[in-house]
Design a protein that fits this description.
The chain has 270 residues and is of the alpha+beta class. The chain contains 9 helices and 6 strands, in the order H-H-H-H-H-H-H-H-E-E-E-H-E-E-E. Strands 1, 2, 3, 4, 5 and 6 form a 6-stranded antiparallel beta sheet that branches. The chain is globular and about 50 Å long.
Length: 270
Amino acid sequence: MPRSLLGHSTNLVGVPTDLLASCAYNDHPVPLHISGACEMNKSLFEMLSQAPDLPDAGLAFSQYMVAMFGIDPEQQEAAPALVGVPRRYRSSYLRLLKGWGYDSNGREGAVLKGWVESRFGIFPTYHKEILSRSGHGWTTYVEEKMSSRFHNNSIYVQLDLLYEFCQWALGQFVAPGKTHIELHRGVNSFEEHQVVERIDRRRAVVRLNSLASFSCDRTLADCFGDTILTARVPLTKIAFFNTLFARHALKGEGEYLVIGGDYEVATSYI
């Protein structure tokens, strides 16, 4: 994908998309905030400020989301289905995370990639196939990201709050004072990752999909491919991480959801 098609010329985080999706930004990140998300939800962050630890903060966030978006109990991972009560689904961030865990190229994955495109301006490079904005694959992606099944409950606003909570938690409890974390991704081919530049035999610049899964544990990354990509990821590009909530669909894989663009990676082999 040519550099001119990295993404939209505008986004909602106040950093030009070409810069945000570049290695230069990754080397020297600046804080990112989605326009209006914190300002419109001050009570959430006032409540979070009283949490003594991350588990309590995660519980407070979950309760706030239930109250704000009317997320039905059966959509919460810990709750059993209610016997005799008709299921009335409202789209929720929890269902998107669960769907991503099953298949990042499914409809839930398209919605998540569409959220990244909308908020951060970065186009996806892969969804079921390598994407070209004039091809059939792009049409499929657009149809799936706009599916009415997932857009009946301000789903992008839910994801905005999830991102802001993630950033707050990283700064407050997980990595205070840090700017980066080393993460790993196992791949079997570079079909999803365009090689932009080969620096040497072990290092390259690759263009990650608009949203990509990484692991904090290299041995877990080994399970997903025989080539391991190791990247120094800025915290500001982490949209979700595995310990953010006590229970969730991605818990077993130590998973981090990373906003894409160009990354310098080290490659190693199992």
